[in-house]
Design goal:
The chain contains 17 helices and 14 strands. It is α/β, with parallel strands linked by helices.
Length: 493
């Protein structure tokens, strides 16, 4: 299910994150928040989100949705397909807001609550249509972290869970449906356990807040980022796996290590100690600067995970790859045979940048590879065709570097078929800055149609040749690029 308009009720840290994720997914958003600071906070969070997303996503982003601040809740929810409630965690306030949303929102709108711990069955009390309420609990920053916990209450319909799942998937998120409602759901219960123990360690003067954060971020935090908890422990069990791990370390659970059933007295002395250490840890950085540092780190980690498994990605990186492909599939492809083919576009990610601050050489070849793949799909050489043992192999490439690209630049590629016969396909690709149309690089390539089982070039079948011949015939009327047939070092005309 795709929504074109959403309403965000509440524009604080979480609400502003939802606004940014929705807008950058191409959804129009109306916001209602009575705070006089709401527009400033949302604007600053949105600026950070745009900065981060263009570094994270290597795919054409949809046109940004329209943002409007409504004068009332009723005005905001009018015409919305999704209403995301993110007001403070007070049950009486949630009741008033959700009941007002229920009265004013369209009958088919999904109502998602960002609550981090209140039971959906409690939230549904007093609603006329409680079946359309679902807890949709995200993690900060909402625009970068993809998880959303979906929790239905006693009156939530199965259709609501299904539709909500489709909506959040379309936003590039990872919905996890919690089987039964429970206070704080899953993620916050795990965090609460760690948080309680951390408070005791500071209270007992065993470690400072910086020490504890360093222990997490230099060790198991890195493992958790890509494998979570149980798979990490499976590996810790060695060749014998999880069963061995549980037998070996299970008895330790009976030792009196933790104080999870107790909480230190959060008196002013302990609060002052934690706050003072936290101030020292920040080293004078403001909240927006810390958010940008956090975002840059999350982008780098996710992009690194996206490069695993031969580029298919792992964990959050695999989800990013899937989302990028969905964006590419949804982007308009210009495939008029009477004109240059425009088949791929994207944004230059941070890891493509070299020590000079520009896109490094081998990334241009990577983009040309994406473009060739898109061309092959256009002529019918898809995954099923390749699985049959036939494909086109690139046997020669000549690249010219003509311009410079930096992180976050949007690019687009064009393709011209120069010549073709039953075995050979000669193409000319160009990479342009999508905003300025500056020519950044060109590549002339020769491809051979091969039978990989026979390990030799073979004639392409009639269906493929029909499309190739059509493109080659019409492209022959286009101007022939000056650099076709160039050799390395030849002067440009």
């Amino acid at each position: 299910m795709i929504v074109t308009k959403a309403a965000c009720i509440g524009g604080g840290v979480i609400g502003a994150g939802w606004v940014a994720r929705l807008l950058l997914a191409g959804v129009d958003v109306d916001v209602f928040d009575p705070s006089p600071e709401a527009e400033r906070v949302v604007g600053e969070v949105l600026a950070n989100a745009e900065r981060a997303i263009t570094r994270l996503v290597d795919a054409p982003l949809p046109q940004r949705g329209n943002l409007r601040f409504a004068a009332s809740l009723e005005e905001a929810v009018s015409g919305a397909g999704l209403v995301q409630e993110s007001v403070p965690e007070r049950l009486d306030l949630k009741h008033r807001v959700l009941q007002a949303i229920d009265v004013a929102a369209p009958a088919d709108a999904i109502i998602g609550s960002s609550t981090s711990g209140l039971l959906p069955s409690d939230l549904q009390q007093g609603m006329t249509h409680p079946e359309r309420l679902v807890v949709a609990h995200p993690y900060n920053p909402v625009y970068l972290l993809p998880l959303v916990e979906l929790v239905g209450g006693q009156q939530t319909s199965a259709e609501t869970i299904t539709r909500a799942t489709e909506i959040y998937l379309h936003l590039g998120m990872k919905p996890v449906i919690i089987k039964r409602e429970i206070e704080a759901f899953v993620g916050d219960r795990l965090l609460e356990a760690l948080w309680r123990e951390a408070l005791w360690l500071v209270n007992d003067d065993i470690a400072s807040v910086t020490d504890i954060d360093d222990v997490i971020r230099y060790s198991f935090g890195l493992r958790w980022a890509q494998m979570g908890l149980f798979q990490t422990y499976r590996i810790a069990g060695g060749e014998a796996g999880m069963r061995h791990f549980l037998h070996q370390f299970g008895p330790a659970l009976e030792w009196n290590w933790t104080k999870l059933m107790d909480v230190p007295d959060l008196n002013e002395a302990l609060i002052d100690r934690i706050a003072s250490q936290s101030d020292d840890q920040a080293e004078g950085r403001g909240i927006r600067e810390l958010e940008r540092i956090r975002d840059d780190n999350l982008v780098a980690i996710t992009r690194a995970l996206a490069a695993q498994q031969g580029g298919a990605g792992w964990g959050a990186g695999a989800l990013l790859r899937q989302h990028e492909q969905a964006l590419r599939d949804g982007a308009a492809r210009h495939a008029d045979p009477a004109d240059l083919l425009t088949l791929t576009s994207g944004n230059v990610p941070e890891e493509w940048i070299d020590y000079n601050g520009h896109m490094t050489e081998h990334r241009y070849l990577e983009v040309f590879g994406y473009t060739t793949d898109a061309l092959l799909e256009e002529i019918g050489v898809n995954a099923d065709y390749v699985a049959s043992g036939r494909s086109y192999y690139t046997v020669e490439t000549h690249i010219m570097h003509l311009g410079q690209a930096i992180a976050g630049d949007s690019y687009v590629t064009t393709t011209q078929i120069l010549s073709a016969d039953d075995k050979r396909l000669q193409v000319f690709h160009s990479i342009l800055n999508r905003e300025t149309q500056e020519l950044l690089a060109t590549a002339e390539q020769m491809l051979l149609h091969v039978d990989s089982n026979a390990a030799k070039a073979t004639p392409a079948p009639e269906a493929i040749m029909r499309r190739v011949t059509e493109l080659a015939r019409t492209h022959s009327a286009l101007p022939r690029p000056d650099s076709v047939g160039r050799h390395v070092g030849q002067r440009r005309s």
